[in-house]
């Protein structure tokens, strides 16, 4: 009887008087339709069989259950629905125990909360990871989680999980009221069976969470907590749809019966499913996992590496050093002279001292990490390293000299990488006798924090050097994106284009403050002129001066930023740029003198300013971004549109809930985006030249996503 009820993804086994229910749906036991059906059948069997006195649910492999099957969202729903599965588990007439040894996330934790008892394993390999991450997918726990979690953990405990999306371990789960018992055992089955027998021996009762208000019993106190949270969430959620809906669902848990609360939750969940934010966030989730799937991965195993060298200990060199040390690597930093290397070391220590000051690291931990760090001014000291990352000045001649040295000293087979932002990596590789070992590793500032790593693949690099770079990214917990060689690679090349669109908007009539406000309104943390002030206006100015000789004389060039720099106004560091920063303020104030410069430049060029709404600003800003993105994909600089999306989400503050620029364009409809570009081209045909790929996709009735498959 037992074997008959088993399915390929949910196996049932009678062990004495306990029914063991094993979910086996690799890689993470997501709750696809077959698993939901299997769990329903398991509960039927438990109820029907007199031999079953208790039920134990476990997950096979590394996870308990990582949640609903995200791939099913947006498709027609298939029965049985997850909330019904959870209710069925809770309604089982025999005590049900959930044994959590790995990830119990989203719907997985909702299954566990529907069981009558929860046992969490804690062991050396990590143990239970409990979380309700739906918010990061634009959703809310939709299988009773918003109703059961507050009953188990109280308003604050439950909302902390639901609003942050973060995971907690077994011990924290016990403290929060989510877990009944901890165990150090490594075998979920044996531990679970033992616990079930212990409960049976005690005559432990069925304990449906829905049956009592639990930690919501003090309604007035719970309401007070929720009122504070609502105000706080309204302030912090910055246009996100699901966080306030989560608060509404917890309010329903306070006000309504469990059954009515579930109905309310279901309606809110479906509204979230229908929202474009859900589509954007789920696209981002899968896209971030897809970028590591590269053509080289099939053929080439990564080279082994444990010892690495960083050349240059400035802003980037120090940040990359911290990233490498945190990844457990042994690092030698090379600088020009004694003074520079002391500064480089100080730059590294500053990061760890900051953590110590915040109480997030001990002096001992810092010392243990720095034991793997060696400062040096001698290239001969890095003869035996496996991998080098160069982060010296952005000057081709300086970099060529460094690579000649690396070619001289490094062992054969060492990977030689450059962190250049714009320079031609083929030209850098050409000065060595081993271009097959030379690659670009473009980190973002601050390198120890920013997730994006553009892996720039020059013409002659060997496939196993590319896979080694992806392996390094994994070790450093970065989001890697494969890029081809061109001026600015994927990110900075597209940035240069939409920054130009912003400059044109400014000269044509929008103030820099209106543009920044529109861009923030779209969901970016900062507008382009705020970013310039933060990075330092002098950096872009130097690049513009360098490129003046090669600029197309027919291309429109806006000089407003140059006028501002000529005054020595380089942004935050000089107290003024596009904004004023009195007394070291970090948030700028509009500057009437900047507006006067803008007016004067318009007058000098004979431009009659016209008003732009925020919507018009964003249409141009985004059209420029998408058009250049399409060129980058069309030229093969990015493998797929999703690589552009991930670049912007992880490295340029693009609002994640919009899924990235290419996903955004798909959601607008490509014909509409192309029509905008063609309309703008009537003003400036050179800048607004439509990308051939965009034209082709529109002609074929396809979208960018069709190229992601
Ligand atoms: N559904 C479908 N596929 C999933 C999935 C899910 N819930 N979770 C992970 N996967 C897939 C990944 O896409 C990946 O596929 P690939 O190998 O083809 O690229 C594979 O499983 C392995 O995933 P990771 O590479 O992320 O593996 P890790 O070991 O690094 O991480 C994890 C494991 C922590 C479970 C991580 O995958 C994760 O966070 N998953 C998402 C969990 C989540 O958000 N759950 C909530 C879903 S929404 C929900 O439950 C709604 C409910 O309330 C109604
Ligand atoms: P930086 O000026 O802060 O640091 C450069 C360091 O290189 C200095 O400490 C200098 O002493 C050292 N150096 C110069 N020549 C050297 C040599 N021959 N041998 C050893 N050390 C030498 O510059 P930053 O900002 O760290 O930039 C470094 C590289 O990273 C550049 O190529 C830049 O384009 C790139 N980059 C910079 C980003 C940023 O936001 N600052 C972002 C991404 C890449």
UniProtKB/TrEMBL annotation:
Q: Where in the cell is it found?
A: Peroxisome
Q: Which residues cross the membrane?
A: none
Q: What family does the entry list?
A: In the N-terminal section; belongs to the enoyl-CoA hydratase/isomerase family. Belongs to the enoyl-CoA hydratase/isomerase family.
Residue ranges constituting the 3-hydroxyacyl-CoA dehydrogenase NAD binding domain according to the UniProt record: 307-483
**NAD as a keyword?**
yes
Reaction catalysis annotation: a (3S)-3-hydroxyacyl-CoA + NAD(+) = a 3-oxoacyl-CoA + NADH + H(+)
Major location (coarse): other
Start and end residues of each 3-hydroxyacyl-CoA dehydrogenase C-terminal domain: 488-581, 618-702
Entries under PROSITE patterns matching the protein: ENOYL_COA_HYDRATASE
CDD domains linked to this entry: crotonase-like
Task: State the name under which the record lists this protein.
Answer: 3-hydroxyacyl-CoA dehydrogenase NAD-binding domain-containing protein
The keyword Glycosyltransferase appears for this protein: no
Q: Which UniProt keywords apply?
A: Fatty acid metabolism, Isomerase, Lipid degradation, Lipid metabolism, Lyase, Multifunctional enzyme, NAD, Oxidoreductase, Peroxisome
Q: Which PANTHER family match?
A: 3-HYDROXYACYL-COA DEHYROGENASE
Pathway participation: Lipid metabolism; fatty acid beta-oxidation
